[in-house]
Amino acid sequence: GAVVSQHPSWVICKSGTSVKIECRSLDFQATTMFWYRQFPKQSLMLMATSNEGSKATYEQGVEKDKFLINHASLTLSTLTVTSAHPEDSSFYICSVKGGSGSYWETQYFGPGTRLLVL
Amino acid sequence: KNQVEQSPQSLIILEGKNCTLQCNYTVSPFSNLRWYKQDTGRGPVSLTIMTFSENTKSNGRYTATLDADTKQSSLHITASQLSDSASYICVVSVGTGGFKTIFGAGTRLFVKA
To answer: Which of A55, A81, A109, B65 has CA 20 to 30 A from A9's CA?
Structure first.
């Protein structure tokens, strides 16, 4: 299956600072990437769908100016949490979907990034 | 409304025992159903994927079933191991392209020695 990496794996920051999380598809070109947020003991919640070379599509209730997504290449998408606050503390997970073959059917997830805002 | 409901919410079993997790969905049009295993603090890992025409699919000690008529799926774990302790998430894809996915809340499984 596809290999997806995220960096950093965890980050602690002060309230008001911005944090960038990287998601990389290591072994195939991902035309579409997804960003999820997961709070403790809850399931994944889709934040936005990122398409290479175009603007991301945000889910209802997700502030696009707060969660900036850039999908500049077929192997890299970034999520920037701007002016982070304690309520943004969560587990952020990206996933990828390819355009052909077995990758089309299965969504591959990154290992996640745990963000703690103090 | 597209929904995926899983039961039980949590489950504790002894090592070596079998267990079955349930997933009921109200999704239309149905594209496919996947089971994922998520270890604490990690991203989900795919276990099985089934389309409309598939009734059962196995992956080692994991066996998933799908009844498209009743819109129910189950994940059966045989001879559980301590490493099976995790959350198991049922995910249903909607539409002809399967782009939209609906996540269940997951079942947290604890395997005790």
So the answer is: A55
How many Å lie between the alpha carbon of A44 and the closest alpha carbon of chain B?
7
Of residues B42, B49, B103, nearest to A44 (C-beta): B103
Contacts of A84 (CB under 8 A, 6+ apart): A13, A15, A16, A17, A18, A19, A115, A117
State chain B's maximal CA–CA distance in angstroms.
44
Distance from CA of B81 to the nearest CA of A (A): 22
Mean pLDDT of A24-35: 85
Question: Once rounded to an integer, what is the mean pLDDT over residues A52-81?
Answer: 90
Say whether B46 and A4 touch across the interface (CB within 8 A).
no
B3 phi/psi in degrees, rounded to 5: -140, 150
- The better pLDDT of the pair A88, B51 is held by A88
The strand pair at B10-14 and B107-112 is best described as: parallel
Q: Tokens 């994927």: give the residue.
A: B49
Contacts of B4 (CB under 8 A, 6+ apart): B23, B24, B25, B27, B90, B91, B92, B102, B103, B104
Instruction: Kindly identify which residue of chain B lies nearest to residue A35, measuring between CA atoms.
Output: B43
Phi, psi of A59 (to 5 degrees): -75, 160
Put simply, whether A14 touches B (Cβ < 8 Å) is no
